[in-house]
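Hi team,

Below is the intake form for HPP family protein from Flammeovirga agarivorans. Please confirm the fields before the structure is written into the shared record.

FORM ID: S-0412
PROTEIN: HPP family protein
ORGANISM: Flammeovirga agarivorans
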Amino acid sequence: MALLNSYFDQQSVLLTGAFGATAVLLFAASDSPLVKRKNMYLGHLSSAFIGVSSYSLFYSISPQIAVALAVGVSIGVMVFFDIVHPPGGATAYIAVYGGQKIHALGYGYLFFPVLIGVIILDIIKTIQPNKKHYECKSENY
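The structure came back. Fields below:
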């Protein structure tokens, strides 16, 4: 991902914090329903859309309200549609507080870096040999 980032010269736009959390889930808790492809893709994309929309509509009124709505509505949408992917909350947060480079992307944020980043992580997980990982068992909770 860092190589792709340097190729596009986006100065760390691609390396959003949400991808770090997604990587932990993918590679250390891959049995979790939270990292099903549907959850990973739709959780990030819906949260990115909600985050950009919240920034566009509410940031000028109050950044705090914009970020609270972005994350809260993202959680609600993910729960309602059964696409919960916790890093999606960070994706929404970053859309609001990510800075000028993120804001300049507008709804393009959904495609680059969000969709491209998720695709890269999915490809890496698909081609990576299946190594021992922690299993998520309900009795551990």
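SUMMARY LINE: The chain has a mean pLDDT of 87.

Thanks, M.
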